[in-house]
Design brief:
Elements (H helix, E strand, L loop, with lengths): L7 E2 L11 E2 L7 H56 L15 H26 L24 H8 L4 H12 L10 E5 L3 H9 L7 E7 L6 H10 L5 E8 L4 E2 L4 H10 E8 L1 E3 L1 H10 L5 E5 L2 E2 L18 E5 L12 H12 L3 H6 L2 E3 L7 H10 L6 E3 L2
Parallel strand pairs: 3-4, 4-5, 5-7, 6-8, 7-9, 8-10, 9-11, 11-12, 12-13
Antiparallel strand pairs: 1-2
Helix pairs in contact: 4-5
């Protein structure tokens, strides 16, 4: 029949946006011409459908991208709003956002100072312009251990709460009136809701007390307790009891705060329900060496070797040492308490200042017989020390 096409262009397919071109030849029969025309029409129709699908896909992708950008912008705005409203009392809030801990502290301090002035003005107006030093209700972020001089020292003294302020805060959270003096005992039991609220309401360092107790620290409130110890622990007190009745965990979490707190305690420190490794135990001895008493109650103390205490306890005036229930069956070191106790006494026997001041050992419920304890004391030069096992 000869060449039915005068020219032919290869079909590269719809994706390349190229049309199939078929030239007509006068020599084509009607049927062949009709078939070729139908093929051209079908190829064109397929190409148009593919282009339409591609356009819809591109539009959908662009629409989804724009929607994602809007959602991201809304999320950023929501986070920004949340940061503004976020209560600065929570130490855990520092973990969120782009600000560093130092920047967050600085931001919180700035807000607190401005709010402090406004609230003190309101308090003074309520009392007929007799400002007795009452402070604020919300918890601040204040830099601990800051050395004040001149005007800064005056400002630091003004930030110490008086007893009227302490009574006011307690009345707000408990609904009951209570008078406090330097001879008062103050208990914070964090298993009680309004006691926990007290941590969030106090805004000034607590005034002098006789005895201060913190009990039942929940595992999810350790951060709040750390902030309280750093900023609002009483200015001065005789006895401090820490962590009574709580689940036992490592004391290392609070060592930085205890270093500061121990400086404010005059006579006795009682540490309850902690796992205490040798390094932290030695640090606590050093911190409390000038107190009258240091007592550990229901703690697990690890002294697998004889610690070096000769230099650490120079100048010690510690009169009473307690290890109550530190060897009972609930502790992991029950079987090794005797050897750990021997290591401790061996180390203390080399400390001349401690030997001169040490008068009483309080060690009930340790799981070791009293005559064994007495022999260990005698072997290390502590025969005259009074032994209390009940």
């Amino acid at each position: 029949m000869g060449n039915p096409l005068s020219c032919f262009c290869k079909n590269y397919g719809p994706d390349n946006n190229e049309m199939v071109c078929v030239a007509k030849n006068k020599s084509l029969q009607d049927e062949e011409y009709q078939n070729a025309y139908l093929k051209i029409d079908k190829a064109g129709s397929n190409l148009r459908d593919q282009r339409m699908q591609n356009a819809q896909t591109h539009h959908k992708i662009a629409s989804n991208a724009k929607e994602r950008e809007q959602r991201i912008l809304q999320a950023k705005q929501a986070i920004g709003t949340m940061r503004e409203r976020l209560n600065p009392r929570r130490e855990d809030a520092w973990k969120f956002g782009s600000m560093s801990i130092e920047e967050t502290k600085s931001d919180f301090n700035g807000r607190w100072k401005e709010e402090s002035k406004q609230e003190e003005t309101k308090q003074a107006e309520r009392r007929g312009k007799k400002d007795v030093g009452n402070g604020l209700r919300n918890k601040p972020r204040q830099e601990p251990n800051k050395v004040h001089t001149g005007d800064q020292d005056k400002q630091a003294k003004e930030n110490i709460a008086d007893y009227d302020y302490l009574s006011m805060i307690c009345k707000e959270v408990t609904g009951q009136s209570q008078k406090y003096t330097s001879k008062s005992k103050f208990v914070i039991d964090l298993s009680v809701g309004y006691h926990l609220e007290f941590l969030f309401q106090i805004r000034k360092r607590m005034p002098d007390l006789d005895k201060f107790i913190i009990k039942n620290i929940p595992s999810d409130r350790k951060g709040d307790v750390k902030v309280f110890l750093q900023n609002y622990f009483p200015q001065s007190l005789n006895t401090f009891c820490f962590n009574i009745g709580a689940d036992k965990y490592a004391i290392g979490l609070y060592m930085n705060e205890l270093k500061m707190c121990c400086q404010r305690v005059l006579k006795e420190i009682r540490i309850h329900d902690f796992d205490i490794r040798q390094k932290n135990f030695v640090s606590l001895l050093s911190l409390c060496k000038t107190k009258d008493s240091l007592i550990f109650i229901n703690c697990t103390i690890y002294l697998s070797s004889v610690p070096k205490l000769e230099k650490i306890l120079i100048g010690s005036t510690l009169r009473k040492l307690g290890l109550a229930r530190c060897g009972c069956s609930t502790n992991e070191n029950r079987g090794t308490f005797r050897s750990h106790f021997q290591n401790l006494m061996s180390a203390l026997s080399k400390c001349n200042d401690f030997k001169r001041s040490f008068e009483e050992l309080y060690i009930p419920g340790c799981g070791v017989k009293s005559d064994v304890i007495s022999q260990i004391l005698k072997d290390n030069g502590f025969a005259t020390v009074e032994l209390c096992i009940s």
